[in-house]
Amino acid sequence: MATIKDIAARAGVSIATVSRVLNHDETLNAQEETKQRIMEIAEELEYEVRVQKKRKKKLKIGVFCSYSPKEELEDPYYLCIRLAIEKKLEEEGYRKQSVTLNDTADSVGSVDGIVCLGTFSKSHIEIVSGWDKPTVFIDANPNPLQFDSIVVDFKNAVNSIVDYFVENGHTKIGLIGALDCDQDGEELQDLRKDYFQKALEKRNLYHSEYVKIGSYHAKDGYTLLKQLYDEKHLPTALFVANDSMAAGAYKAAYELGLSIPDDISIIGFNDIPNAKYMIPPLTTVRLYMEFMGEYAVQLLEERITQGRDICVNVVVPTKLYVRDSVRNIF
Predict the structure, then answer these.
(1) What is the pTM of this model?
(2) Strands (DSSP E) along 129-236, which ranges?
(3) Of 82, 123, 279, 286, which has the highest C-beta tally within 10 A?
């Protein structure tokens, strides 16, 4: 393979001159004939310009989780996303710094950007904003003009659940949902409940007596299904707000002597790893948790390295994974 030295020898010029011509250095003071001769010799010798790759900056990324380790274990949704974030950071060779509410602008001064995972109150958002770092939120979209965000397409997810129940002949459709408050005591809106109610109201199928609201824990799924049974308001089909609560509902159904799906059909949400191993395997909405975690790192990297000013708000689609927990009653 020809080298710059070979071209310089043929052209009768210095190696530096050849290098500057081949790299289109406009500040080079050389005759056009010389430049043309160098280019022609380079083509004749089939010289290939080596493009030097820029060394990728090793970023330091802060990770701020709004929930406790205990809450993470009770609902693996956030656990799966956090692990995906950490895996992506490791793959890219980036350093991770755990960030908490006790941090200040000084203590996070060395980080290049922050990933926020969970639900956040107004006071939390103010703290994050005060850190003045490129930030991406996962599962929250507090200010689409200030922060990047990645959220789930709850509307289409819930519509797919209701459609599937109706396609299988169900008209008595209920919900075991959840209600949380943020750190300021403000009630957090659960879009799943809102979209569920709207989807059933369009079909004149909504009945409030089939709806029970608790917390996002297995014990609540267990307790609330038993309440529906005791109150004689047990629907034929039940949407449960997450798979952990669905596991609790499964246990309650077993204790009550109810067969799934013969006596009651159940659809969960999240598609946590053990959903397919439940008996019967749980039909549930898959959230692409690994993608959400990985893409959050990519968004943050892009904003840091390219200086993007416009915020990006990503809505991630879902997929209904049909297994064996829904019965066709036509």
Answers:
(1) 0.79
(2) 135-138, 148-152, 173-178, 180-181, 187-188, 211-214
(3) 82
